[in-house]
Specification:
Blueprint lengths: L7 E4 L5 H9 L4 E4 L3 H8 L10 H6 L3 E4 L10 E4 L14 H13 L4 E5 L7 H13 L9 E5 L18 E3 L4 H12 L6 E3 L3 H32 L3 H8 L21 H11 L6 H26 L8 E5 L15 H10 L3 E5 L5 H8 L14 E4 L4 H4 L3 H5 L8 E4 L6 H6 L3 E4 L1
Parallel strand pairs: 1-2, 1-4, 2-3, 4-5, 5-6, 7-8, 9-10, 9-11, 11-12, 12-13
Length: 432
Amino acid sequence: MNSTNLKIAVIGLGYVGLPLAVEFGKKRDVVGFDINPRRIAELREGRDHTLEINSGELKTARRLVFTSETADLRDCGVFIVTVPTPIDSANRPDLTPLIKASETVGKVMPPGAIVIYESTVYPGATEEVCVPVLETFSHGKKFNIDFFCGYSPERINPGDKVNTLTKIKKITSGSTPKVANIVDELYAEIITAGTYRASSIKVAEAAKVIENTQRDLNIALVNELSVIFDRLGIDTLDVLEAAGSKWNFLPFRPGLVGGHCIGVDPYYLTHKAEEVGYHPQVILAGRRINDNMARYVARNTIKHMLRNGMDVPRCRVGVLGITFKENCPDIRNSKVVDMVREFETWGVQVVVADPWADAEEVAHEYGLQLGVVDAEHPVDALVAAVGHNEYRQTNPDALRAMCRGTKPVLADVKSLFNRHHASEAGFTVFRL
């Protein structure tokens, strides 16, 4: 068993899988597999709606083919699973996509196959959940005898054109020392930043899940500080900039924590912790704070509207941005939606605009119709929810032209605008 001539199958061609398939496809034969025929058709035409890979980059992967047919996977020796691992409505891990992908791989993997998982999971999931599925659907193949596993957590940052796949150090691991070497050598072919070989699959799984848990807690801290400072009549950004004059102060900012990683991964860790008899306190406290920030922004916006004498149920609020982060079309687990729902409970008419989001996808996922907020379609209050470049390049006077009435409210979630200039333009300003 060696990695020299192994053909690779990448299972799942989203934000994680496609860049991986493209990079490997420059060097060896790769089958990019996705269960969505529309996604396959799009990629065959040289288009990527996630905007992670452009048409020119797709053409450089000359040894990459796309398919939604499982039969096309049968001559592959390495299977890299990059499917989503979301949470359900009760914040419990939903491993359905991971299990389904494992069933697919189990049916087609040959003797000696290596199955590498990149999806974020809790420590132990690969060997406790995925391996039994692989054994069952492979008709008798035994783990570490007839097939092997590895875990190399994804570190993709959607929308980031600087810290791309090859420039981020890759954690690798394998179910035996020899397989660990093969997995590490495989990724070393494409990762110019280098690799880090973890001591076990479980360690690699844990390393991934705490990366985002740490960020979640740091953001929760500054979110809680912003709530306190608002009650004290102090501007949070002023405080953070002052504290940031010390060399070791961490530059975290308050905001909405959504997306497929930071707002989800901690729940995988807390689920496993509770399974082994420990009830996490700090991690879940951070999650509660961050999960409530969207409603907090909506309620504070309403509060300022009421103070300005507005008849809130008859007002229009414009929300600028619905993607989970700036300059990226990804709307998964967007906390802006929670904000919109809170506004709607007050009877407010909400108009959501976003130049990056796909209107059809927004309607399908959240039942919301994207609209227009401008001088011809004015609102009574604006929420700058996402820091897209299009919004950063707008000045407060231009924003004021989008509003009607004498005392509009501007909720600047990301502190995109100079608050003094916004006040001079006529806004009542609220920001985290």
